[in-house]
Amino acid sequence: MNIVIAIAAVLVSAFNAFGFYKAGSFKAKATKEVLLGAGMGWVANIPLGLVRLIAWLEILGAVGSVAGPIGAYATGFTWSLWVGVAAAAGLALTMLVAFIMHVVRGEAKYTWKMNLTMLATSIIAAVLQALVVLPIF
Asked: Where are the transmembrane segments (predicted)?
């Protein structure tokens, strides 16, 4: 395993996890009115339970993408590296669906920068973590 790739994977995953954890914890704690006031117009048309599900998926993905690699390095459980890969890939899929939803709703002109940034960091984190699990170099 290349130590540079492993360090880059942890750093990108930590940056990615920070953003998703903040977004997820806000969605998990805020009322529907607060979310609408924050510019999340999509919340008006879906049940609050689905908003909470999305929030918890973001939180769990953030925790998993960081805890997987750290768990492997700290305890030697190499299987936990796969948890990090799966969590980062799941966050990438979440952002892909979010981007598609915003395009369909006509909100992409307001959200495309954040959506694509979070999508790109999730993909980069997943690829770097996969390179650590499946060392090619």
From this structure: 6-23, 35-59, 79-104, 116-136
